[in-house]
Amino acid sequence: MGRIDISVVIPLYNEEENVPLLLERLKEVLTTLGRTFEVVCVDDGSTDRTVEILKGLKERYPFLRVVVFRRNFGQSAAMAAGFDFARGDIVISMDGDLQNDPSDIPRLIQKLEEGYDVVSGWRRQRRDPLFTRKIPSMIANWIIGRATGVRLHDYGCSLKAYRREVVKNISLYGELHRFIPVLASFYGARIAEIPVRHHPRRLGQSKYGLSRTYRVILDLLLMLFFKRFATRPLHIFGLLGGGMILLGTAIEVYLSVLKIFYGEDIGGRPLLLLGILLIITGVNLFGTGLLAELLVRTYHESQGKPIYTVREVIE
Ligand code: UDP
Ligand code: MG
């Protein structure tokens, strides 16, 4: 498979109304760049006519490639598949509902070529519902910024440009497409952010609501934990468990000395209970650490397994 200049990756889940206009707008913008390009549409198990419509448009838009999932695996998996299939030196990700504006793509690429590895869009004027979307996002953006040290205004914007190495070296799972800049920074990417347009969704329905925020936050915690202790969980569990075992043992030794050499009655002392609890909990934590260490190895060994299954690829 020969390399090309630009790949645009688009996850689609029941976007039949949006696909035709989306491709037309992309064609208009991408042809002005004077480079080779492809558009990789990943159908995430749509139950409407999205796939038929994509197939019908293949002839009109030869740059179109379609990956069809066997079922709905979620936006992160669809993006991951797009990244896997992308042949471009520069990869652009965006939503398929025209909330992102294809006309921002040239500016993203220009910024990338100033010497960045990821350029993230910033929806300065986000056109989404306030309470269910914008406020949870504001909170999430604040937490992510503090927790990760990667300071952006808008992590969740799908419209982004990446150098090829970045997308080929990060692995997505759960809801992690929202944290691609963070994952990229773990990888060592130079990241920039530029304001982009954002439009209200005109056709079709949003697939998300408030309930996702909860899952997003859990995924974030898991990811931060992984960054720190992914390779050696025993480092934290071992330290905690070992410390507790030592402290508990010291307490028990002290009490034993009191009992044996000074003949004191130690039966009713709260300290006795504390010492025992510390030892038991410490041993448990240590055991958990060992188990986690095993899990991590399993995790790394299973990395080769895809997080999605493909029914069909239309080239
Ligand atoms: N999407 C997807 N799989 C899903 C949910 C969404 O591929 O399970 C796609 C969807 O078709 C769209 C993009 O992800 O292209 C963003 O979804 P949506 O517009 O519903 O999210 P919002 O803009 O409301 O955050
Ligand atoms: Mg949308």
List the topology elements.
Blueprint: E1 4-12, H1 19-31, E2 37-43, H2 50-57, E3 64-69, H3 75-85, E4 88-93, H4 105-112, E5 118-123, H5 130-148, E6 160-163, H6 164-169, H7 180-187, E7 191-196, H8 211-229, H9 234-262, H10 270-301, E8 310-314
Parallel strand pairs: 1-2, 1-4, 2-3, 5-7
Antiparallel strand pairs: 3-8, 4-6, 5-6
Residues 11-13, 15, 44, 72, 74-75, 78, 95-97, 99, 201, 206-208 line the site of uridine-5'-diphosphate.
Pfam families: Glycos_transf_2 (PF00535)
InterPro entries: Glyco_trans_2-like, Glycosyltransferase_2, Nucleotide-diphossugar_trans
Keywords: Cell membrane, Glycosyltransferase, Lipopolysaccharide biosynthesis, Membrane, Transferase, Transmembrane, Transmembrane helix
Q: How would you sum up this structure, described in words?
A:
This protein is 49% helix and 16% strand. It is an alpha/beta fold and 315 residues long. The chain has 2 domains: 4-228, Spore Coat Polysaccharide Biosynthesis Protein SpsA, Chain A (Alpha-Beta Complex), CATH 3.90.550.10; 233-303. Strands 7-5-6-4-1-2-3-8 form an 8-stranded mixed β-sheet. Helix 5 (130-148) runs parallel beside helix 8 and helix 9 (234-262) runs antiparallel to helix 10. It is elongated. The N and C termini lie close together (12 Å). Residues 95, 97, 99, 201, 206 line the site of magnesium ion. InterPro entries: Glyco_trans_2-like, Glycosyltransferase_2, Nucleotide-diphossugar_trans. Keywords: Cell membrane, Glycosyltransferase, Lipopolysaccharide biosynthesis, Membrane, Transferase, Transmembrane, Transmembrane helix. One of its GO terms (biological process) is lipopolysaccharide biosynthetic process.
